[in-house]
Every structure is written in structure tokens, then in C-alpha cells.
Write a structure and sequence with these properties.
alpha+beta; Cytochrome p450; 4-stranded mixed β-sheet; two-stranded antiparallel sheet; 10 strands; Cyt_P450; transmembrane helix; Cyt_P450_sf
Length: 517
């Protein structure tokens, strides 16, 4: 019997075909990547570190404090640095000029957001105003927020801010060792009252717990545009049981927490309104505006937009305000001479028989310099949120590809001063033209934070009230020696100070009477 070799069904031939298919796939993939590489190099791209084939500049970007490495590249490549993360182009803007030129002057094509696969598709943040793609829905969200948080409207919110400031001071007098927890309750209570009409008495409040859990889990899973699946979107289709699918399994847990954070407070307000109970707040006002006939007639689109706006404002305002106030207290502990000078100014203008108000702000220029330096010394969000270029652009004769992720290095921008590592509020007195951090920490162009007026006023009133009523100093060890905390920070999307010891005491017995509510 003549053997004509293996039939089409034999394992040997099947293995040959599979091996051949794999080789073809690899060759075609390499050819495509090489073609893309050569295409990029033929165009005059902005300068940047040389990318490696296939993976680009991934290995050159540190996972901790990348803003510092980007700032170092300013002296090597200039203020506009081009990177490639796998096949995704990225642009780092290290100067105010470049950030304003692109993100502000050309905001019509630089105001989109990248598609954060992990956050949007897998974790449920797609309705958050910070992540909504540029277009009609984005503009609707901005209108919703503007109605409550525009520069004139925030004046009507001062009673909430003043009430919660009084609670904060009373909490600090009662439990001075719980500074971080009291700041957290204060920031959560202020924005929760405005967005949902809810009174937050402690950090055990279920709404606060929902938001903290969602935020903590999200941070643990990776920051925007910093996870592998954001650059290799096909990874989203990896089965959850696969070895490389840990991110997907975690995403399911985070999505549940995020959905609860957006849905439960919203449904609470909706249920109250359906029962005839109406606590004035942003959510109830938006419900009435979208459905004058009643909450039962809200469209699905209206509900998703209102949830997204309210949830975003709570999550964003609580985290960044807490960060700035924590940094302020840390700076005052480390620099007692600054605190004493700010307190002397406060005593001259306000005295010790009342709390400061917004009308006192213009008469407290040194405190203003202190708060500017706080935001410069530890930028709350060092890289802001990424933008996405919607069309091909040319800047300084450089080609910038469509779809490029664009990040303003706010850390680098605010380092452009003498002795940037020092905490020195006097720099703003010596140079009145020095950049005000408030002009950059809230973002740029059409993506600039719409709640910035409220956030700025909340931080100022809290800091001014602490200066007026409390003594902030170093704590002591068992031998009576000062304990000097380290100025270290938890690196992440929002850069919080690490936990630190401090001593906070009321200046007089009259403080409790001044803060009675």
C-alpha cells in the first residue's frame, strides 16, 4: 500500500498550518508596525526620546511621579515633548505658552477626551462629566454645572460653606487628633449638601462611604491613560479567567462601586421628590428643569446626564479640596514663621471676635500668597486630565497626528520660578507678575473645571477660618521634642500629602461661641 503522506485531517498537517498562520500573522503585524513607524518618522514630529519598536516610549516613563521626568525633559527636548505609547501618540506640554496655545487658543480641536477603556468601558465612568467626549452632551453637562457653580451663583452657596466651616472648627476642638478625618467630613458635607441636599454628620455617612470606596478602588486600578488596556484596546476582549485579565476582574468590582456612587444618592433625591419632599439642591433643580411634569417623566438620557453631573461634582470637589487643605496644614506645621505672619495679618484685619468672611479677602494679601504657594508647592492634579486632538494639527512647524493624547504638565509649569522646591509665599510679593496657580490648576480651555469658583472659595474660607481660630504647630514626642513631619506625598491622579502628625488647638475659649450653629 502506497503512503501518500498525511491526510488533511492528521495532527501533523494541522500543526503545520497553525504554525504557518502564526508566522504570517507575525510578519503582517511587524510589517504594519514598521510601516507606521516609518510613516511617523517621515513627518516632522515634535522632539522627544527615541521610541523602541512596537512598545514606543513605555519603558522611559516612570510609574511614580511621571510629571517629574517630563519636567526633566524640558531641558533636553523643549517644552513640547512627543512620545509614543505602543502605537498611541502622546504630547506633553511643559510650559504655560504651549498649554495656552493648544488647549486654549485651539480648544475647538483639543477639547476631546481619550477613550479611557478601563475607566469608561469597564468601570462605568462614561457618564462622568470629566470623561464625556466633546460634543453636544459635553456642552449640556457644562450648562448643568454652570447653573449652580458660575461665579455669580456660588455667592448663594456661602451659607452652606459657613455652616460647615463652623462644624469643622468644632470637630477640631473636640477631637484634635482626627485632623484628616475632620477635613474629609467637611469637604464631603459641603459638596454633598449642594449636590444632593443631604446633611453629612460624620465620615460614616453611607453616601460618603459610597464615594470613598469608588474613588479608592478606581485609584488602585490605575489612573486615566496609564493602563495597558487604554493603549491596547483589544485586551478588553480577554476572558475574565485568563492570566492577563486581572484588570478586567478588578474592573467589575470597581464598576459596581461606581454605579452605586452615581445611582444611590440620585435615586434618594428622586424618591424624596416623588413623595413630595423637596430639599433644594442641584440634583432636584435639574430634575425639575428637565421634567416640569414630574420626576416620573424624566427620560433615560436626562437621568444619565443628571447622575453624571452630580456624581462628578461630588467626587471631584471632595478629593481636590481635601488635598489642598491637607497640604495647607502640612505647610503651616513645617513653616511656623509663615503661619505666625498670616495670623498676625488676620488679627489686624478680622480680630478674634468673629470668623472671616469673603468680604475680608482683599484685605488679607499675605494669606492669598500663602494659598497660592500651597497650590504651587504641591499641585493637586500634577498632569491634569488628558485631552485628545480631534484633527491633524501643525504647531511650530511640527506635525501632530489626529488622536494624539495631550497632557499639560502643570507641575512643570509651576516650577518655573526661583528655588521652586522651597515653600516661600513671599515670592508672590517680590514678583507680582508671577503666575497665579489658580490660572492653571483647574485646567485649560473648554475643559477648564466648571466648579473652580466654588472650590476656590471653599478653600479660602476654610484656610482663613483655621488661621483665625486655631494654633497649628508640630506635635511632640514623649520626651517633649518637636516631631517634624516629612513632606512626602501619595502619588496618584490627585497628589495627597502622606499622613503626618500635627498639633491643633483653639486660640481661645471664645471660639466655640463664635462657631455655634
Amino acid at each position: 500500500m502506497i503512503d501518500f503522506g498525511p491526510s488533511l485531517n492528521t495532527p501533523m498537517l494541522g500543526e503545520i498550518i497553525s504554525s504557518f498562520s502564526l508566522k504570517v500573522f507575525v510578519i503582517v503585524s511587524l510589517a504594519y508596525i514598521t510601516y507606521r513607524e516609518l510613516s511617523f518618522r517621515r513627518k516632522r514630529l515634535p522632539p522627544g526620546p527615541t521610541p523602541l519598536l512596537m512598545i514606543g516610549n513605555v519603558l522611559q516613563i516612570p510609574s511614580i511621579s511621571p510629571q517629574k521626568k517630563f519636567a526633566e525633559w524640558l531641558d533636553v527636548y523643549g517644552d513640547v515633548v512627543y512620545l509614543r505609547i505602543f502605537q498611541q501618540p502622546m504630547l506633553i506640554l511643559n510650559s504655560l505658552e504651549a498649554a495656552q496655545d493648544l488647549l486654549h487658543q485651539r480648544s475647538s480641536i483639543y477639547s476631546d477626551r481619550p477613550n479611557f477603556v478601563l475607566l469608561n468601558d469597564l468601570m462605568g465612568w462614561q457618564n462622568a462629566s470629566t470623561h464625556v467626549r466633546y460634543g453636544p452632551r459635553f456642552r449640556r453637562h457644562r450648562r448643568f454645572i454652570h447653573q449652580t457653580f458660575n461665579q455669580r451663583a456660588v455667592e448663594t452657596l456661602r451659607s452652606v460653606q459657613e455652616k460647615e466651616i463652623s462644624h469643622l472648627i468644632q470637630d477640631l476642638i473636640r477631637e484634635p487628633e482626627q485632623v484628616a478625618q475632620h477635613l474629609q467630613r467637611f469637604t464631603a458635607a459641603t459638596i454633598m449638601k449642594i449636590t444632593y441636599g443631604a446633611d453629612v454628620k460624620s465620615n460614616d455617612d453611607p453616601f460618603v462611604q459610597l464615594a470613598q470606596r469608588a474613588g479608592s478602588l478606581t485609584i488602585q486600578s490605575g489612573t486615566p491613560a496609564a493602563t495597558l488596556v487604554d493603549y491596547i484596546p483589544i485586551m478588553r476582549y480577554i476572558p475574565s479567567w485568563a492570566p492577563l485579565a486581572g484588570f478586567k476582574r478588578n474592573a467589575g468590582i470597581v464598576k459596581e462601586a461606581v454605579d452605586s456612587m452615581f445611582n444611590i444618592p440620585y435615586e434618594t433625591v428622586k424618591g424624596q421628590m416623588a413623595s413630595g419632599i423637596d430639599f433644594p439642591c442641584m440634583t432636584s433643580r435639574l430634575m425639575k428643569a428637565c421634567s416640569p411634569a414630574g420626576v416620573h417623566y424624566l427620560s433615560l438620557e436626562d437621568e444619565e446626564d443628571i447622575k453624571g453631573v452630580a456624581g462628578t461634582m461630588y467626587a471631584a470637589a471632595e478629593d481636590t479640596t481635601h488635598c489642598i487643605l491637607s497640604t495647607f496644614i502640612l505647610a503651616m506645621v513645617l513653616h511656623p514663621e509663615v503661619f505666625k505672619k498670616a495670623q498676625a495679618e488676620m488679627d489686624d484685619v478680622v480680630g478674634m471676635d468673629r470668623l472671616p468672611t469673603f468680604e475680608d479677602r482683599s484685605s488679607l494679601p499675605y494669606l492669598e500668597c500663602v494659598l497660592k504657594e500651597v497650590c504651587r508647592w504641591n499641585v493637586p492634579v500634577p498632569l491634569g486630565l488628558p485631552h485628545r486632538l480631534m484633527n491633524v494639527d501643525v504647531y511650530r512647524n511640527y506635525h501632530i497626528p489626529k488622536g494624539t493624547t495631550v497632557m499639560a504638565n502643570i507641575h512643570s509649569i509651576l516650577q518655573n520660578c526661583s528655588q521652586p522646591q522651597l515653600f516661600r509665599p513671599e515670592r508672590y510679593i517680590e514678583d507680582p507678575n508671577l503666575l497665579d496657580p489658580a490660572d492653571v490648576i483647574y485646567g485649560f480651555g473648554r475643559r477648564r473645571c466648571p466648579g473652580r469658583h466654588f472650590g476656590d472659595r471653599t478653600v479660602w474660607l476654610a484656610a482663613a477660618s483655621l488661621v483665625c481660630t486655631m494654633i497649628i504647630s508640630k506635635t511632640k514626642d514623649e520626651h517633649g521634642n518637636d516631631i517634624t513631619p516629612n513632606a512626602t506625598f501619595v502619588n496618584g491622579f490627585v497628589r495627597h500629602p502622606s499622613e503626618f502628625p500635627c498639633n491643633i488647638q483653639p486660640r481661645s475659649e471664645r471660639i466655640l461661641m463664635m462657631t455655634s450653629v
